[in-house]
Specification:
Blueprint: E1 6-12, H1 17-26, E2 30-37, E3 48-52, H2 58-65, E4 70-73, H3 83-104, E5 108-114, H4 138-157, E6 160-166, E7 168-169, H5 178-181, E8 182-183, H6 185-197, E9 203-208, H7 237-243, H8 252-255
Parallel strand pairs: 1-2, 1-4, 2-3, 4-5, 5-6, 6-9, 7-8
This protein binds 1,4-dihydronicotinamide adenine dinucleotide and D-galactaro-1,5-lactone.
């Protein structure tokens, strides 16, 4: 059973894939779930507030954050895109969010970072929270910026952040790479709940994956968060192997943890 940890919890990115999947689940974590996105969302139900806002609009973000005690931040550009879009949503938008949190006294944020902060590590390597970032594109760079920005707000203003380097959060792993990077929706909710409820979060980096047998991620430095995944991509392994071709080991998408992200985009 999930125990509510905050009165008003803001979740950004509510119109997106993860936001829609977490909307019903996160209602158990709070009295009021405030949902926001630049795109239209389903109307508010009991215990919900719906606020359409652009993260790049500082005044709108200040109003959005007022009265919240914690934030789950999914909003922003979620794939490799032209720099202008990433700049507004993930750089300016994130700064606006942390400034609003500082002004309104919000002390805990779960930031949806990404495995693409580390995309240029090889699939033969294992990374932890202290491994130097090796972003695989502008999107990954923007998430690395978010990790550094949140670090600064922790050191200066005591705002605790969990930087969750999410792997692939989908109903099922789509390909062989995702057997290592997959996290189920239920485990994602367990992970967010752990970040919201652990007594001392600090500024922490945690890899967001299920309990997959093949893994490139070592979460030993995040044990204080208390996340224990219950699902595993292993149950999909046979079916994924059967429906996907033999990997070409010369293909960078097969060599690197970031998969196809290492070779797509405007650059
Ligand atoms: P998504 O693209 O489906 O959702 C992102 C949402 O953010 C969209 O609804 C979009 O309208 C909103 N958004 C974009 N720009 C905005 C702006 N300027 N102002 C307000 N809202 C804006 O992405 P998804 O899959 O739901 O991911 C959620 C978060 O988790 C993203 O930050 C993504 O980078 C991160 N993530 C997701 C992974 C996954 O497997 N789903 C893996 C790694 C990271
Ligand atoms: C991400 O960061 C993306 O937001 C998501 O769409 C997936 O592609 C995921 O990484 C992944 O690496 O599978």
């Amino acid at each position: 059973m999930t125990i509510p940890s905050h009165h008003t919890l803001l979740m950004t990115g509510a119109a997106g894939g993860l936001g829609q999947a977490m909307r019903a689940r996160l209602k158990a974590n709070c009295e009021v779930l405030r949902l926001s996105d630049v795109s239209p969302m389903a109307p508010a139900q009991a215990g919900e507030e719906v606020v359409q806002a652009d993260l790049a609009d500082a005044d709108a973000v200040k109003a959005l954050v007022a009265g919240c005690q914690a934030i789950v931040h999914f909003g922003g550009v979620s794939t490799e895109q032209p720099w202008g879009a990433i700049l507004q949503a993930n750089i300016v938008g994130l700064y606006n969010l942390y400034e609003a949190a500082r002004l309104h006294g919000v002390k805990r944020i779960v930031f949806a970072s990404s495995n693409h902060v580390m995309g240029f590590y090889r699939q033969s390597e294992v990374v932890d929270a202290l491994s130097p970032p090796r972003p695989d594109g502008l999107y990954g760079v923007s998430k690395a910026f978010g990790e550094d920005l949140s670090r600064m707000y922790f050191e200066r203003h005591g705002i605790e952040t969990a930087c969750v380097r999410i792997g692939s959060c989908l109903p099922e792993p789509k390909d062989r790479r995702m057997l290592a990077s997959w996290i189920s929706h239920d485990d994602m909710h367990r992970l967010i709940t752990a970040c919201l409820t652990t007594q001392v979060l600090g500024h922490s980096i945690i890899y967001g994956t299920s309990d997959n047998s093949v893994s490139w991620y070592d979460n030993r430095l995040a044990h204080h968060i208390g996340y224990r995944p219950k699902d595993s991509s292993d149950v999909f392994r046979e079916a994924v192997f059967a429906r996907t071709p033999e990997p070409d080991l010369k293909d960078p998408a097969v060599q690197f943890q970031g998969g196809a992200f290492v070779k797509i985009g405007p650059l």
